[in-house]
Design brief:
Blueprint (H helix, E strand, L loop, with lengths): L2 H10 L3 H13 L4 H21 L5 H18 L12 E7 L7 H12 L2 E5 L6 H10 L3 E7 L6 H12 L7 E5 L5 H7 L3 E2 L3 H12 L1
Parallel strand pairs: 1-2, 1-3, 3-4, 4-5
The chain binds cobalamin.
């Protein structure tokens, strides 16, 4: 079995004790960290999601898979990103209110940080007020990034983006993302940008901030 398959199986099976060692072994074999992330980890969360949808697994299994992926990402983190030294400005990031998913948001935060931004991470379940108060406290913010994984929290994303845009604060762009989000939805709610994954989110943030 390849190291990537072993990592995928460990995540799916929620084997958080072995994941760190497996990621280290894969890195030692010279496997590209991005390949480990995309093929071993992110793809596996898609499989986990499908199994949940078909009621083959339930929330606890989804949770342990998520915890295992997080542990794996910790080991991978120093190997990802460019470690850019120059400051591209500030980026405020958070997952919308009502939504507790943060793996994708954390990856986006990590890649945006590697692209040279100072990242202020508000965590999960973030209401519009928190985004706006943080913007007011950090008027030099260049990008506000809003994540959402549930179709049921897409209306909250619309409200949050609207409230941020109408807050009277200036000089920043709003980007959105998450599994159910599309460019069409971003256009509809007046966001300045959308991207489908963490690497392109960082490129988008850089483009919009310059
Ligand atoms: C792990 C997981 C959980 C974990 C979350 C743990 C955690 N700390 O995040 C737990 C168990 C807590 C959970 C709970 C629930 N979950 Co859940 N979960 C998932 C699962 C399996 C994986 C999500 C994930 O981490 N993916 C991997 C990451 C890397 O991908 P990502 O988040 O999409 O992020 C990438 C891009 O979207 C993008 N991106 C993300 N954010 C942003 C932001 C910006 C600005 C940009 C530009 C890009 C960007 O870049 C990221 C990196 O490439 C998904 C299945 C799936 N296919 O998504 C279901 C899923 C999202 N969950 C689902 C559901 C239904 C739930 C629950 C309602 C279940 C329940 N009955 O309680 C609860 C809701 C809790 C809540 N209020 O939030 C459904 C949602 C269905 C829907 N259409 O809304 C899914 C799709 C499963 C399914 N197929 O049914 N879940």
């Amino acid at each position: 079995m390849s190291k990537i398959q072993e990592i995928a199986e460990a995540i799916e099976g929620g084997k958080s004790k072995v994941i760190g060692g497996l990621v280290e072994a894969a890195l030692a074999e010279g496997i590209d960290p991005l390949k480990i992330l995309n093929e071993g980890m992110i793809a596996t969360m898609g499989v986990v999601g499908e199994k949940f949808k078909k009621a083959e697994i339930f929330v606890p299994e989804m949770l342990v898979a998520a915890r295992t992926m997080k542990k794996g990402v910790e080991v991978l983190k120093p190997k990802l990103g460019s470690g850019a030294a120059t400051s591209a400005g500030k980026c405020i990031i958070g997952t919308v209110s009502g939504d507790l998913h943060d793996i994708g948001k954390n990856l986006v935060a990590m890649m945006i940080e590697s692209a040279g931004f100072e990242v202020i991470d508000l965590g999960v379940d973030v209401p519009a007020d928190s985004f706006i108060n943080t913007l007011k406290a950090n008027p030099d913010t260049k990008v506000v990034a809003v994540s959402g994984l549930l179709t049921t929290t897409m209306p909250a994303m619309k409200d949050i983006v609207g409230a941020i845009k109408n807050s009277g604060q200036k000089g920043f762009k709003v980007i959105i993302g998450g599994a159910p989000i599309t460019q069409e939805f971003a256009d509809q709610i007046g966001a300045d940008g959308y991207s489908a994954d963490a690497a392109s989110a960082a490129a988008l943030a850089k483009k919009l901030a310059s």
